[in-house]
């Protein structure tokens, strides 16, 4: 939307600045396109000092969705990771088929699913920069949230399947460990650790999501992290088995399964909530009640109802509101006042319906 | 009193508004309650009836599945055969899919909260998405198993056993597919397509209301009606010529999952009689079962091949691959619907350019911008836009006209219009 007319000085990245209500201020990180090298630490920034650099508007709209030439750095890193993974799983599948080793084939299948997910994340990163069109009036940014959600769902499936494997190992009680799997596990671990290093700023369980890409990067990081935990678990299990510890495989697989589950659950909930049209997370519910009270307190307004707010992507909130205005009053002034109030909270896309009673 | 003819020759629309002396509650723009027509009483009772019918179907399917699964597990342990146990695991995945659908159905009926101001209808869509991802996962697992069968050159695979087990699995799946896919052409509240485009605002105090009067007539009477809140007289929009246009209320039936032009009543009248109307969760469970039966057919063919000519094992793998691809194709349409809803895109059945042009052609309207049309779930559509009007025009009257136009033409019930003067 267009820049807000300053009733209160408002900045797109810091919320209310100067003499406004500082409690409504927030810090928003620019997308990585604008600040290439220095990570912005929110606390050391101050809204008093420098004028913000102009926001990167994104590449000019072109027909192709991929636009590899202007890929951002995380996209390039993800593409590299994806290429490594694809090459690795292809060789593993080929070797497994020719030498007839089932373990290698199953590992290759795990990796292929992972590659598919990473491809979808990469596609989401590329496609989300497309400008909104007639069919997708809100743009394509939701794809990143969808990619994050898909990643989270498959990681949950992975943890369930690891639990099933542990159960299987427990019942079959086969303690023969396959040596060739160690080599593949070590290679897998190193590739995934490289991926974790690429996305190291997202290697946490609970992250505050400031914009759409945050969720996607976080999901990619969790994916490679979960894969590396699984490989590490396999290596550990075979080491314990060689030490003679009974049921090592069951233990390690069980621990890995629980670990992956706990790792993924917050991302799953956050992405799921956004897809469920939950109210914006960075605004406390009391703020909404306060705004609605402030509007009702206007002498021209008799009633405010049907305030619905939801987040398109983390950081971009949309809302709709209905106001009943007393007849004869200036509804444009009420409109501007309401818009100003909600812009303080960070809700830019607001549609306000004013009925005259 | 004003009456006008809309573009459909058979429609006669009569609208009468008693002067709004009733306190505050004037016009048909008003929706009472926190979540308006997403959870007002008539809708919830209809939704609840349809939801409980779907849940009943799914519960029966789950019970059948569990019975068959225990039979297979017992048989597999007794015969010490991995193939039978694997098939039991597939049935377990069916149970998981049904459990997801049941949960989504149940959760979609939760009351809206201030945090979830639109209610929980999206949970259906998310549940269907997870279900479809499960289908994809299982297709991959089946391909993996076929490869393993190929690699195990030691001939552990018995073609006859494979054939028998997959035939049994096919039989079970067909029973469940019939049960889930069977649309009832009779009675109340069965087989409603989920998410009718309800175009009425429920009036709580209206004594003429007899919404409990459901009638499903297979000749395809489709009626759209709207009535205003409180003090107004009800409006009946008649779409089918042999229905008496008195103050009778009939509910809308549209098969929304499968037909692409939800606002044209006559076409939906024709289609409503033919297309099965299914809740999206029941439909995804049905897809799951259908996919399983397709794959059972593939495994049966592979088993028969291995039985007769064990050296042609590669055919088993090729068969499985082909049938997995077929299964994936059956899910594509539903996946596309789900993705479009989750991306907040304009629903396919609504032509946004025509709507915008229609709004611009109204007198007093200068421009329309920031038009957003999106769906909360497959049947419930919302609209928000900014309308710029001429300086001297009457905002309230234009608001009424715009909302009325959108509601009658496009059947979008939840509309928020911001009127701006230029």
Automatic annotation (TrEMBL), chain A:
Spans traversing the lipid bilayer: 78-98, 104-124, 145-167, 179-199, 220-242, 248-268
User: Is Iron set as a keyword in this record?
Assistant: no
GO MF term set: zinc ion transmembrane transporter activity
What are the BP-aspect GO terms?
A: intracellular zinc ion homeostasis
* Cell compartments where the protein resides: Membrane
Q: What is this protein called?
A: Cation efflux protein transmembrane domain-containing protein
Keyword Membrane assigned:
yes
The protein's predominant localisation is membrane
Q: From which source organism is this entry? A: Digitaria exilis
The Cation efflux protein transmembrane domain extends over 80-276
Listed InterPro entries: Cation_efflux, Cation_efflux_TM, Cation_efflux_TMD_sf, Msc2-like
UniProtKB/TrEMBL annotation, chain B:
- One Pfam family assigned to this protein is Cation_efflux
- What is the organism of origin for this protein? Digitaria exilis
The segment(s) forming the Cation efflux protein cytoplasmic domain are: 347-421
SUPFAM superfamilies this protein is in? Cation efflux protein cytoplasmic domain-like, Cation efflux protein transmembrane domain-like
Q: Which UniProt keywords apply?
A: Ion transport, Membrane, Transmembrane, Transmembrane helix, Transport, Vacuole, Zinc, Zinc transport
This chain's protein is named: Metal tolerance protein 1-like
> PANTHER family, per this entry?
CATION EFFLUX PROTEIN/ ZINC TRANSPORTER (PTHR11562), METAL TOLERANCE PROTEIN A2 (PTHR11562:SF100)
Q: Cation efflux protein transmembrane domain: from which residue to which, for each copy? A: 58-343
Highest taxon of source: Eukaryota
MF term (GO), any: zinc ion transmembrane transporter activity
Q: Does the keyword Transmembrane helix apply?
A: yes
Q: Where is this region: Disordered?
A: 186-252
Q: Which InterPro entries has this protein been placed in?
A: Cation_efflux, Cation_efflux_CTD, Cation_efflux_CTD_sf, Cation_efflux_TM, Cation_efflux_TMD_sf, CDF/SLC30A
UniProt similarity note: Belongs to the cation diffusion facilitator (CDF) transporter (TC 2.A.4) family. SLC30A subfamily.
Q: Where are the transmembrane segments?
A: 58-77, 89-108, 120-147, 159-180, 285-308, 314-335
In which residue ranges is the amino acid composition biased (Basic residues)? Answer: 187-197
The UniProt regions of compositional bias labelled Basic and acidic residues, in chain numbering, are 198-221
Topology of the protein relative to the lipid bilayer: Multi-pass membrane protein
Location, primary (coarse class): membrane
Q: Name one GO cellular component term.
A: plasma membrane
Its subcellular locations are: Vacuole membrane
Where composition is biased (Polar residues), the residues are 230-247
């Amino acid at each position: 939307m267009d820049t807000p007319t300053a009733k209160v000085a408002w900045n797109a990245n810091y919320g209310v600045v100067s003499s406004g209500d500082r409690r409504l201020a927030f810090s928003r990180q620019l997308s990585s396109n604008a600040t290439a090298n220095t990570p912005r630490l929110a606390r050391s920034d101050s809204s008093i000092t420098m004028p913000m650099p102009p926001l990167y508007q994104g590449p000019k709209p072109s027909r192709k969705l991929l636009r590899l030439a202007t890929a951002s750095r995380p996209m390039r890193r993800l593409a590299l990771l994806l290429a490594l993974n694809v090459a690795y799983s292809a060789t593993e599948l080929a070797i497994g088929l020719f030498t007839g080793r089932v373990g290698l084939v199953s590992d290759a299948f795990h990796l292929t699913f992972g590659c598919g997910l990473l491809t979808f994340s990469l596609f989401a990163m590329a496609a989300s920069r497309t400008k909104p069109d007639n069919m997708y009036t809100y743009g394509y940014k939701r794809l990143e949230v969808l990619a994050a959600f898909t990643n989270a769902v498959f990681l949950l499936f992975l943890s369930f399947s690891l639990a099933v494997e542990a159960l299987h190992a427990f019942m079959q009680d086969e303690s023969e460990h396959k040596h060739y799997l160690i080599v593949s596990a070590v290679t897998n671990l190193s590739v995934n650790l490289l991926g974790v290093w690429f996305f190291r700023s997202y290697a946490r369980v609970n992250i505050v999501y400031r914009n759409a890409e945050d969720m996607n990067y976080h999901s990619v990081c969790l994916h490679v992290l979960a894969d590396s935990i699984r490989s590490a678990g396999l290596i550990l299990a075979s080491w314990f088995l060689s030490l003679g510890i009974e049921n090592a495989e069951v233990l390690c697989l069980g621990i890995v399964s629980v670990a992956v589950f706990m790792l993924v659950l917050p991302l799953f909930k956050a992405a799921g909530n956004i897809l469920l049209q939950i109210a914006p997370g960075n605004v406390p519910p009391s703020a909404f009640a306060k705004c609605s009270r402030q509007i009702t307190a206007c002498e021209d307004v008799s009633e405010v109802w049907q305030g619905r707010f939801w987040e398109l992507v983390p950081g971009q909130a949309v809302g709709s509101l209905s106001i009943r205005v007393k007849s004869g009053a200036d509804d444009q002034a009420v409109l501007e006042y309401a818009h100003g109030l909600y812009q303080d909270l960070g809700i830019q896309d607001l549609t306000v319906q004013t009925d005259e009673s | 009193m004003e009456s006008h003819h809309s573009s459909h020759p058979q429609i006669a629309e009569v609208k009468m508004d008693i002067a709004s002396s009733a306190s505050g509650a004037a016009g048909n723009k008003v929706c009472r309650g926190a979540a308006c027509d997403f959870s007002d009483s008539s809708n919830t009772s209809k939704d609840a009836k349809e939801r409980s019918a779907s849940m009943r179907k799914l519960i029966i399917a789950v019970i059948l599945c569990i019975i068959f699964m225990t039979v297979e597990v017992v048989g597999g342990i007794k015969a010490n055969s991995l193939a039978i146990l694997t098939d039991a695991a597939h049935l377990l995945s069916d149970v998981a899919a049904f459990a997801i659908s049941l949960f989504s159905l149940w959760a979609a009926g939760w009351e809206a909260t201030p945090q979830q101001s639109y209610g929980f209808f999206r949970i259906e869509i998310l549940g269907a998405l997870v279900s479809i991802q499960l289908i994809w996962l299982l297709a991959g697992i089946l391909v993996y198993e076929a490869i393993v069968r190929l690699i195990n050159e030691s001939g552990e695979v018995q073609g006859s056993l494979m054939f028998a087990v997959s035939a049994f699995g096919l039989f079970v799946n067909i029973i469940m597919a019939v049960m889930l896919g069977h649309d009832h052409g009779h009675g109340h509240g069965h087989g409603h397509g989920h998410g009718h485009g309800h175009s009425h605002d429920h009036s709580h105090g209206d004594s003429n209301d007899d919404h409990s009067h459901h009638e499903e007539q297979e000749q395809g009477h489709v009626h759209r009606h709207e009535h205003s809140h409180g003090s107004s007289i009800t409006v009946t929009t008649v779409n089918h010529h042999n229905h008496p246009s008195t103050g009778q209320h009939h509910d809308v039936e549209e098969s929304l999952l499968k037909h692409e032009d939800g606002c044209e009543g006559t076409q939906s009248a024709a289609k409503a009689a033919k297309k099965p109307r299914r809740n999206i969760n029941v439909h995804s469970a049905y897809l799951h079962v259908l996919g399983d039966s397709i794959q059972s057919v593939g495994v049966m063919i592979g088993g028969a091949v291995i039985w007769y000519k064990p050296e042609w094992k590669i055919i088993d793998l090729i068969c499985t691959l082909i049938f997995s691809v077929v299964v994936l194709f059956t899910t594509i349409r539903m996946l596309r619907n789900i993705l479009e809803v989750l991306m907040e895109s304009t629903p396919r059945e609504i032509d946004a350019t025509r709507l915008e042009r229609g709004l611009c052609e109204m007198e007093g309207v200068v421009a329309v911008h920031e038009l957003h049309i999106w769906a909360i779930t497959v049947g419930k559509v919302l609209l928000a836009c900014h309308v710029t009007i001429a300086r001297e025009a009457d905002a309230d009257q234009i608001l009424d006209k715009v909302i009325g136009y959108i509601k009658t033409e496009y059947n979008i019930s939840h509309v928020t219009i911001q009127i701006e003067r230029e």
